[in-house]
Amino acid sequence: MEDLHSDNLKKTIDVAAKLFALQFGKQLSREKIRWLYGLLFESMIDSIATTGKYKICNFGSFKRVFNKSRKLNNPNNKETINVDAYYTVKFASSLRLKNRLNKIERYKIDRDESLGEEFEKEL
Question: Looking at the 3D structure of the chain, how many domains does it have?
Answer without folding.
Answer: 2
